[in-house]
Amino acid sequence: RLALERAKQFVSSFDRPNIRYRVTLKDNARKQLQTFLETEHPNDAGIVYCLSRRKVEETAAWLKDQGWDALPYHAGLDASLRSKNQKKFLREEGVIMVATVAFGMGIDKPNVRFVAHLDLPKSMEGYYQETGRAGRDGQPADAWMAYGLGDVVSMRQMLLSGDAPEERKRVELQKLDALLGFCESTTCRHQTLLRYFGEEHPGQCNECDNCLSPVDTWDATQAAQMALSCVYRTGQRFGVAHLIDVLLGKATPKVEQFNHQQLSTFGIGKDLAQQQWSSVYRQLVAAGFINVDMEAYGGLKLTEAARPVLRGEKEVWLRRDAEPAKRKSSKAERGSRLREAFAGANEDPLWQVLKAKRMELAREQGVPPYVIFHDSTLLEMLNRKPKNLIELGQINGVGQSKLTRYGDDFLQVLKGAG
Questions:
Q1: Which of 49, 59, 262, 318 is the most buried (most CB within 10 A)?
Q2: What does the alpha-carbon distance between residue 338 and residue 180 come to, in Å, rounded to a whole number?
Q3: In sequence order, what DSSP letters do the residues of 17-72 get, joined into one string?
Q4: What does the angle CA 133 – CA 134 – CA 138 come to, to the nearest 5 degrees?
């Protein structure tokens, strides 16, 4: 025992107010990622998380083909290659690491401007830990995730088909359900995330997707009854695509093979489009009304929670999915003055020169750029444009040691720009 007396306790909040959380409905995940990078993070360092090693390598190769400086990282890669990629990510600007969850533990790169998920994490704890690798310098950062029905089904399949004891599976499914609730939430993402960890957020963050574009909900009780009834009438062994075909009255070869055109649910859902039915099923699975039946090759099966809905004893309200967002400039999307200032720096030639000088000094000394100065310090230099060492020394992050070592170099850059 340490036998400490009057030891101080430091209690910190789980909140990361500089991170903007966003969950976008998965359509074409690669193109959506490309748009996100082009419009908001064209020159920034970031991490893209994927569930499988194969997807990591394919995504990294695809990003590289699109002109991005992207590297793969997962436990199956040769140790020397992992080390090489990690060092490049830490020491160079604008590198994107595409990785499994094997990457990130012990990584301390302050100016990671985004963390993107192309696949659903396994839990809220995992999501919080992975997104927490963005914005450690306190500057604005994005946590972006593409999420869809396929993620829900595949993640449930993965957990249910594992070799873990039943009790462990039950706990893991509960954690997954909490994450699905976060994805489908209509309230502030910060509030939802903190509430999971037993902490209350004082109010709306006015930064996340739900705060910036409030979500519309609708009474989907009748639609839910149709969707659940279709699962039951078809024998609880078919996937979503087939169920939607039945609801829309499509006489596909598969529908006719199983004689499902004779069911009472055939064609009763023509008032909703295919995309809307996909949204209904996604949210019903996420809410626990439907499970994935592994013995039926991933077919959907009703849970006990579906019973009161089918009996008309319970209402179901679902979120109305937004239309796919059109591309817009990063400035137009920024939710605060701080975000706008940081985004605007990328358009200032002096910002690029300051970063180039920092990179030059970092390479000379064999250290990551942030060891010279953090982005927040460079941003303050850009805004205040100090004219001498005294003024430069008043900027946050410029201590006496760094002022002595780097002051003249950066003043020279600032004077040249003036």
A1: 49
A2: 30
A3: TTEEEEEEE-SSHHHHHHHHHHHH-TT-EEEEE-SSHHHHHHHHHHHHHTT--EEE
A4: 115
Query: What does the alpha-carbon distance between residue 211 and residue 215 come to, in Å, rounded to a whole number?
Result: 8
Q: Where in the chain is the domain with CATH 1.10.150.80?
A: 348-417
Ranges in the chain annotated CATH 1.10.10.10: 217-319
- E-state strands within 75-230: 96-99, 112-117, 141-147, 217-219
Name the DSSP class of 321.
P
| φ/ψ (deg, to 5) at 290 | -135, 140
Nearest to 239 by CA among 155, 120, 122, 149: 149
What is the pTM assigned to this prediction? Answer: 0.74
User: 294 versus 162: which is more confidently predicted?
Assistant: 162
73 DSSP β-pair partners: 99
Instruction: Note the pLDDT of residue 133.
Output: 93
Using DSSP's 3-state secondary structure scheme, residue 141 falls into strand
- The rounded distance, in Å, linking the Cα atoms of 66 and 406 is 36
Three-state DSSP state, 264 = coil
Q: Is the dihedral of CA 342, 348, 354, 355 positive or negative?
A: positive
C-alpha Rg value of the chain to the nearest Å:
25
CA distances in angstroms from 328 to 168, 212, 257, 325, 356, listed in the order given? 44, 15, 46, 9, 28
- CATH code for the structural domain at 19-212: 3.40.50.300
User: Domain spanning 348-417: which superfamily?
Assistant: HRDC domain (1.10.150.80)
pLDDT of 259-300, one tens digit each?
999 999 999 999 999 999 999 999 998 888 998 776 666 689
With cut-offs at 50, 70 and 90, classify the pLDDT of residue 330: very low
Within 87-158, strands assigned E span 96-99, 112-117, 141-147
CB within 8 Å of 78: residues ≥ 6 apart = none
Buried b (16+ CB within 10 A) or exposed e, 204-236: bbebbbbbeeeeeeeebeebbbbbbbbbeebee
> For the purposes of burial, counting CB atoms within 10 Å of the CB of 396, is it exposed (0-12), middle (13-18) or buried (19 or more)?
exposed
Delimit the CATH 3.40.50.300 region(s) of the chain. Answer: 19-212
Q: Are 184 and 319 in contact (CB under 8 A)?
A: yes
